[in-house]
């Protein structure tokens, strides 16, 4: 399983890798939405975990771009958004953009793993 971690914090990306080690994924990383889109042009992924607040391209804009991709596999890849903003408005914006689920920061390993299980297609790890 290929997992793209998109967060402007290298420490958050490292923590996510520790939490997901049991799934034995291959990790791809990007510091923002623009870089993540470039990574996706080169490598197929099975799951994207993306922070909401990044610059220059935030997570919601990234998801919107992803869902408008010409490549069908990108339009349907599961996306879990991470946010420390607990407002309903951010959640609604993310879901309208095409996110599958949200996990609040600080990230809890069990919650993240359960969320991934919930959004992955049946038969996936």
TrEMBL record:
Pfam families xrefs: Response_reg
Residues the record lists as 4-aspartylphosphate modifications: 51
PROSITE patterns named in the record: RESPONSE_REGULATORY
Keywords: Phosphoprotein
Every Response regulatory domain range: 2-120
Highest taxon of the lineage: Bacteria
InterPro entries: Bact_response_regulator, CheY-like_superfamily, Sig_transdc_resp-reg_receiver
PANTHER family with a match to the protein in the record: CHEMOTAXIS TWO-COMPONENT RESPONSE REGULATOR, STRESS RESPONSE REGULATOR PROTEIN 1
Protein name: Response regulator
Taxonomic source organism: Anaeromyxobacter oryzae
């Amino acid at each position: 399983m290929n997992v793209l971690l998109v967060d402007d914090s290298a420490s958050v990306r490292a923590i996510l890798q520790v939490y997901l080690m049991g799934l034995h994924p291959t990790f791809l990383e990007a510091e923002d939405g623009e870089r993540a889109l470039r990574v996706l042009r080169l490598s197929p992924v099975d799951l994207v975990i993306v922070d909401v607040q990044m610059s220059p391209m935030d997570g919601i804009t990234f998801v919107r771009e992803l869902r408008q991709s010409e490549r069908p596999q990108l339009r349907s890849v599961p996306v879990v958004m991470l946010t420390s903003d607990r407002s309903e408005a951010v959640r609604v914006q993310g879901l309208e953009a095409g996110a599958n689920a949200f996990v609040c920061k600080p990230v809890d390993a069990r919650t993240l793993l359960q969320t991934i299980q919930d959004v992955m297609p049946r038969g996936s790890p």
